[in-house]
Amino acid sequence: MQTMDGATVQQLIPNRFPIFYVDEVTALVPDQTVTVQKYLTHAEDHLNGYQPGVGRLANSLMIEMMAQAASVLILHSPVFANKTAYLAAINDATFTQPVTAGHALTITVTMGKVRANMGTVSCAASVAGAPVGQATLHFVVQASDGA
Hints:
Order of helices and strands: EHEEHHEEEE
Number of domains: 1
Largest sheet: 7 strands, antiparallel
Radius of gyration: 15 Å
Mean pLDDT: 93
Distance between the termini: 29 Å
Helix content: 10-25%
Structural class: alpha+beta
CATH class: Alpha Beta
Oligomer: single chain
Strand order of the largest sheet: 1-2-3-5-6-7-4
CATH superfamily: Hotdog Thioesterase
CATH topology: Thiol Ester Dehydrase, Chain A
């Protein structure tokens, strides 16, 4: 099982501040599963803009965080190395609890079916072990710009 800090993750995926949402990879089994952490703070503008004064994470941003976690899993595979993963579709997304500043969001992504340059992943998000959201994401992988 592997771990990664944010700087190492940025070597895999193209996202950068202010739209980089993976603080660390706490567990990675290539081609199978990845678990990432995102520590939410009041200093993040996207938390204060959704519901001013509440510091709540928008569900759409939780999907983006799931997609970035999925990109780590997908692009760590030798099959997709040095490529870019794109979110193609979202199915069965549910959100059960609000996530707010001060929470440590854990996202676990499990690889599903993969065919050629596309596939699915199952994502589950939790805070302190309690489920807060889940979704099935479909992805497409293509050559990176300049590659």
